[in-house]
## 1
Amino acid sequence: MTDENDLSGAPAKRAPKPSPTSIGNHQLSAQTLMMGFGFDPSLSEGSLKPPIFLTSTFVFESAAHGKRFFEGITGKRPGGAEGLVYSRFNGPNQEILEGRLRLWEEAEEALTFSSGMSAIATLLLTYCKPGDVIVHSGPLYAATETLIAKILGKFGVSWFDFPSGATREEIDAVVAKAKEKGRVALIYLESPANPTNALVDVEAVAAARDAAFSGGDKPPIAIDNTFLGPLWARPLAQGADISVYSLTKYAGGHSDLVAGGLVGSKKWLDPIRMMRNTIGTICDPNTAWMLLRSLETLELRMTRAGENAVKVCEYLRGHDKVESVGYLGFLEPGSRQADIYNRHCSGAGSTFSLYLKGGEREAFAFLDALTIAHLAVSLGGTETLASAPAAMTHLSVPDERKQALGITDNLVRISIGVENADDLIADFENALNAV
Ligand SMILES: *Cc1c(COP(=O)(O)O)cnc(C)c1O
C-alpha cells in the first residue's frame, strides 16, 4: 500500500541551501550574517538581494505537497510548515527576516508582526484565557497597559504589577498575591521602563518564577526589549523566554516603517505562530524587505547612536539650565540599578530623559528652538527626536501616577540618532539658550 504522504518520489521542496555560520572553528557574528544569511540567490535568478515576493498565495508541486504543508500549518503534524502556502501564514521575505532576527539573541526562532503592538497582542491572546492573571513590571508602554488592563480585562483576565526596579522579595510578594487570584498565565516585563529608564532585574524575576511554579505550571517570561535590544541587552541570556520588539524603533531604525517581532525558543513561539496564522498579524513582505536592509546596518547605527548619546549627555549634565539627565550611563556606582545594568546591559542606549530647570514653559521653549532634532514621538531612528511626555505620550496618565513615575512638566524625552555629535551639541546649546 502506498502512503499518500510519502513524497519521496515528488520533487523536493526548493529550500534555500543552508548558509554557513562558521569558517572552520571561527563562529561568524550576527553583524556579518545580516548581509546574506538565509537567502539563496539561486532560487531568485541569481539576484544578490532577495526580491520582494508580492503574492497572496503559493503554488503546490502536487496535491500531496499541499496536504502535507497544511498538516504542518494546522499543527496536525509537528514540525511546522515545510513549504510556503498562503501569505497570511508566511512568505520568503518574512522567513529570511525571522532567520536573521533570531541570530542577535542566539535564539531558536523569531516571528515578525505588522507592529510591535500586534506582536504583543498575539502573544497575550496565545497565553491568556478567562480567569488568568498576568504579572507585569510597571510602568509599561501605554498601549500595552491598555491592552492588559482594559481589553483583556473585558475577557476576565486580571493583572498584578511590581515596580520595574523591584527586588526579589518584592517580586515574590506580587507573584504570591497573583497565584491566590488565579492561574498565572504570563510574566510580562519591560526594561528599561519608559520614561523612567528603570531596569528590571530579569535574573531575579526568573528565580522568583522558578521558585513559585513547577513543571507545566511555569508561566513564560516575556520582556519588551525595544529600548536596548538586540545590541545592548539580550534578556534571553538572563532567563527570559520571549524577547519582544517594536521593530519600528532601533531595528527598523529609519522611522519609515511599523513592525514587531518576538524572539525565543520554538517551544514558546510555536503556539504564537498558530495564533498569528489564525488572526493574520504577520509582517507584510515589503516591510520585511525593508527590515532586512535595516538589519545590515543595525550594529553600525546603534553603535554610533550610543556613542553620540554619551557625548550629548555629558554636555547636557553640565549645563546650568539642566536639573538632571536620566541616562543609563550615569547610574550611581554601587546602586541596585547599576548592579542590574552591569549584569544585563552592554551599553546605555541612546534614549534618555532630560529634566530642565522649570516646568512646561521651559520644556516647550527648548523643544520649539531645536533645529536638527525633530519634535516627534518615537525613538531609535537615524535622526534625533525630542518630545514632552507629560504633554504628549503620557497626557492621559492620571496626575498622581505621573508624579510617581517622574513624568513631570519639565521632562523632555530624547532619542539620539547617528548625526555628527558636535552638531547635536550645538543644536542643544542653542535650544538651551532660548529657554
Ligand atoms: C513603540 C513601542 C511599542 C509599540 O510598537 P509599535 O511598533 O508602535 O506597535 C511597544 N513597546 C515599546 C517599548 C515601544 O517603544
Note: The chain has 14 helices and 14 strands.
## 2
Amino acid sequence: MIKNLDIDIKSLPTPCYIVDERLLIKNLEILDSVQKRTGCKILLAQKGFSMHSVYPLVGKYLAGVTSSSLFEAKLGYEKMGKEVHIYAPAYIEEEFDEIMKYSDHIVFNSFHQWNKYKDKVRTSTKKISFGIRINPEYSELEHPIYDPCYKFSRLGVTLPNFKPEGLDGIEGLHFHTMCEQNSDTLERTIKVVDEKFGRYIKDMKWLNFGGGHHITRPDYDMEALVRSINYFQDKYGVSVYLEPGEAVALNTGYLVAKVLDIVENEMNIAILDTSAACHMPDVIEMPYRPNIIGAGKPDENPHTYRLGGHTCLAGDIIGDYSFVQNLKPGDRLVFCDMAHYTMVKNNTFNGVNLPAIALYNEKEGIRIIKQFGYEDFENRLS
Ligand SMILES: *Cc1c(COP(=O)(O)O)cnc(C)c1O
C-alpha cells in the first residue's frame, strides 16, 4: 500500500493527470545509463506517452521518438526535434510524402509495402534509413491482444515470407515481440531472432529491438539487457535501437479524481468524476487494477468500496478497494502509474470531459499544462 504523496494535490481540478518530473528524470537517467554503457540508442515510443510538454526534457536524455502514424511523427519532429522513427502496419498513400519529411527511419511491415514505396523513397533528397519488421514467431505473452506473434498475426514478416531478394535498399530489421517484460525474455527472444534472421542481420546497419522492455521497473535485470545489446553489436556490427513507451513513463504520474456519490447495492459503491472507460481504458482492456494511494485490497482496511465511473456503461468499474475511513462525496483519490497509455488513449464517451494535465517539479511546483472543455468534445464530432 502506497501511503502518501509529497505533492499537495488539493489545488488541482479533478479529474487531472499529474506527472512528476522528478520521477520522469529518474527513468530517463536509467535509460540513458543503458545508452552510455552500450552505445545503443533509445527512442520514446509516443504510442504510450505523448505528453509533448515534457519532450524537451525527454530529448535531453533519449535519442528521439518512434511513431505509429503521421501525426505522431509530426509531433515528435516538432516538439522534440531529434531522431524520428516510424513503423505502421501499412502506410496511407496520401500521407507518405509528409511522413518522409519528418522521418529518419521508416520501417515497413511487409515487402509489398517496401516495394510500393521504394521508388518514391529512392528519389528523395533526404537521407532516410529503411527497415523491415520481422516476426520471429517467438513471444512469451498470453493475451493475443498484446502478442504480435500469435497465430495469423499481421505484424511483421515471418521467415517463410521473408524475401532476401527484396532487401536492396533496406538497412535495418525491426522486431517487437514483448510487453512489460524483463530482460530474460529478451535474451531468449534474441536467440530465436539470431537463429532465424542472423544471416540477414549481418548485412544490416541497425537492429531495432522494439518496445515492451520494462527497464525502469525495480526488479529489471539490466545486465541481461546490456548483454543482449552487446551480443548483436559485437557479432554483426549493427547499431541497436530500443523503443520503449511504458518504461519511459512508468510510475511517473497519477490521476487525481473526486468522489461524487456513494450508492449501496449489497456493497458500498463510490461513483467518481473519472471513468475507467474514458480515462484509464487499459483497466478494462488489459485488464488490471491500478493502485490508489492510501487504499488496500478489499477488506484489508475497514471500509471496502467498489469504485465506478460516472458513465452509463455498466462495466465502467475500476475495482474494489478498502480504505481506513469511510469515503464521502468530495474526497480525493489518487490513482498511481497513470502517465502511460492513459492520456494517449482517453476519449469523451458519454460526453465525459477529458482530465486536465498537470506537471510538477521542485522549482515551479504544480503547473496545469492543459484543461479541456466542451469545444474539444464538439470538435471531434459533427
Ligand atoms: C507498442 C510499441 C512500442 C512500445 O511498447 P511499450 O510496451 O510501451 O514499451 C514500441 N514499438 C512498437 C512497434 C510498438 O508497437
Note: The CA atoms of residues 373 and 379 lie 10 Å apart.
